[in-house]
Amino acid sequence: MQVSSYPKINAQLARQLLQPRPNDGHKGTFGHLLLVGGHFGMMGAAILSAEAALRTGLGKLTAHVPETANIVFQTRLPEVILHFDEQSHQHWASIIDLNGYNAIAIGPGIGKDGETQWAFRAQLKMLLDLETSGNPMPLMLDADALNILAQDYQLLTYLPAETVLTPHIGELKRICAALELPHETTEEQLSSAQSIATSLQVHVVVKSHQTHICTNDGEVFQLDTQGNSGMAKAGSGDVLTGIIGSLLAQGYSAKSAALLGVYIHQQSGWRATVRYGEHSALASDFITEIPHVFSTLASSNSLQNETI
Prior knowledge:
Blueprint: E1 8-9, H1 11-17, E2 32-36, H2 43-55, E3 60-65, H3 70-76, E4 81-84, E5 103-106, H4 114-132, E6 139-141, H5 144-151, E7 164-165, H6 169-178, H7 186-200, E8 203-206, E9 212-214, E10 220-223, H8 236-249, H9 254-276, H10 283-298
Parallel strand pairs: 1-10, 2-3, 2-5, 3-4, 5-6, 6-7, 7-8
Antiparallel strand pairs: 8-9, 9-10
Helix pairs in contact: 1-9, 2-8, 2-10, 5-6, 8-9, 9-10
């Protein structure tokens, strides 16, 4: 299949996927996400993910972070419940009890310390055991979680079915290299991502100027855009993590969360770029535009025809 012939991720698809919110809902109705992120010197990634998750309709968010994140998180996002690591004040080092959560997102800013790699392996094993017992918990992995997978590719066998992976091209290449899969050209990268998705029964979001999603049933979707250099900023992927994680916790299927999340992310980035310019838009600016994207999806008007 030629790249141009992939089904498109656009407003029409997003409107079909968007679920109505019941008027009598409460915070429990809209899910509880566990976000595992942050490392001394890298707390910003977790904060961006957390704020994006809350702006995407999430009812409740717990962030498992090092205790050094306390002041910055409490000051920036008082809505977030903080859960501090028991073994380290600077990075993730301990297994987390998953009772009470509806989904888990791992990766933004966690680093690759030895203790973090151990905790990650143990947490994946716990999630796999939950799936085996008939109580699967939706999972998404990004950033250093993906880099740890590339370093120890045997961990890929621990991934529960329906896991969402969101690598950028560099992260995808590292995973492909570890698995000895071709990855030099765009066509090879997508083919390898599709192979990973179907063989492991996961969903792979290949982030680029024209993002593609390879689903576990063999489909490949393409974001309907020519790209936006204003979104080529540090933190952009962390925002996407928060968006998709939020949708997973709200009960969207993994496939729907990936498709809708990629659309919301792209449109919020587009709006921020229109407002601040390609040079000056920041990842945090994308988050401020998420409410406008939802407003537009809920109406009959096209975002492209709306004046900002």
